Hints:
Layout: H1 3-10, E1 17-20, H2 29-56, H3 63-91, E2 96-98, H4 99-132, H5 137-140, H6 143-166, E3 178-179, H7 186-190, H8 198-232, H9 236-269, H10 274-297, H11 301-322
Parallel strand pairs: 1-3
Antiparallel strand pairs: 1-2
Amino acid sequence: MTPEEKAVNATFIRPAKFYLSGFSKLAHVKYFYVFLCFVYIMTVLGNGILLSVICLVKTLHSPKYMIVFNLALADLCGSTALIPKVLDTFLFDRRYIVYEACLSYMFFVYVFASVQSWTLVIMAYDRFIAICFPLRYHIIVTKPAIAAMLLTQWVFLVSLVAFIVGIIDRLSFCRSLVVKSFFCDHAPVFLLACNDTSLNSIMAYVVFVLIICIPPILIALTYVCISIALARIASGEERLKASKTCTSHLILVAIFFLPILGTNIAAVTSYIHPNTRIMNSTLTNTIPALLNPIVYSLKTEEVLVSIKKLCKRHRIGNTTKKW
């Protein structure tokens, strides 16, 4: 070890701030910020309406809608953790972010994205039981069982993300403090450190496998079983009806996983311009939360009927007050 390396290892440097360099030298980028603002408003409206309807309508207090509620909550919180801060950082040119705030930012973005990923797995489990074991569905998929699954998911994912964010605190940053991303992303932050980052690198792969790779594999396996079960159904009408219940979920899975997997595979196998990667990452982190309530819930008959009932009840309440 050279004297210079010894000096670096002996000096632990924790920066006061990081600098987020995302969207630099990008033409007409303000139009993209306006688009993100629109996406956030519609995400809040869509998921807010869905959460309110599920809370207010007793007929929706079922295991299936507990899962839908969890996804809508993760979508709403994830977008709120990410988009307002992105707009504040780049639209108002406040690119410096305090060290502690950067780690908090990373924690919340990763937690809600992880919950979105695994909630889609629990949705697949719900569809699997409903189609493959229809007579036992109400015995297996109960409120306590789903509550336990959702709680376990939250505890595990919060612990995992807290660990990967916590081990960044042991790193010394004696080189550049420019984070080449649109938020405090895990890899762009820990790669700036000048001491040993092998644990951080290993955990980055672990998180990628647990959050991005395993969930779609499990979902694919459930749909193989569902396809076999559907092939055994004699009636074409029954098969079509069962298929319709899966289509919306498959669209959600495709919207969430395909762009993330595509971006990561392209980044590994070929060169992607940093701004292209950042734009893709921004859209993959924001568009699913916008589309989820529209694709999966707000167009379903149960939810539409519940919304109409609430509107009717509200109208009758207002009329009564006037009289």
